[in-house]
Amino acid sequence: MDPGALWQDLGWQPDTLQARSFERLYELVLAGNARLNLTRITGREEFWEKHLFDSLRGLAEFQDQKELSLIDIGTGAGFPGLPVAIAHPDWYVVLVDSVRKKIAFVLSTIQALGLTNAQALTGRAEDLAHRREHRESYDLAVLRAVAQANVCAEYALPFVKLGGAAVLYRGNWEVQEEVELARACRALGGEIVEVDAFELPVSRAVRHCVVIRKIGLGLRVFPRPAGLPTQHPLG
Ligand code: SAM
Asked: Would the pLDDT of 4 be above 90?
């Protein structure tokens, strides 16, 4: 597969340095996988499509914006945050995960790639969102494969500035999920503004990106203490 063909779908092409960083990221994830079991996606073609392309495609509607701040909650091995930081050197990207060894991997990768626009933090969304330096501080919050959609909204929206957005990367998307998410959003000061359905270009796997605009400040009690959002989801 020619990676150039994938990027054409986005209307964007990496420069030489970015293309080299994607290659290096692939090598680092493979090496890290031997120790840490970071991802099932290890084939080269699959990695380009399901990690690199998918990470950037979810933010296609924002890709021409300059100087955004973004938090990637539940980043795991660094997705979607690391490809986004490589593709957008003028964005500021914070990658968060509750598992220390995953964040240790992400930090070493940030260093190895020389990314000066990214940082990584160990912590749970439910705790970090109550810290003054993170609360309502980001233009965008993104979550891929972290929890059900209404739980993701509770994690994400408290981090987002008024007028900013949370983007939920989903596979399939059911009507019932949207109903529950819409109810949760009412409590959290959010409004679903778009459900972008698309297919990945090679595997034709179905993806949905749900964009929630922050239209009100929401209550200070959100997110509720660690564990509660998943035990008793809003909506
Ligand atoms: N986003 C990555 C991706 O798409 O490849 C990783 C997905 S992995 C299935 C889910 C990750 O979310 C795990 O690394 C887990 O530790 C993290 N996570 C789950 N709940 C979290 C929370 N409340 N706060 C921070 N991280 C969380």
From this structure: no
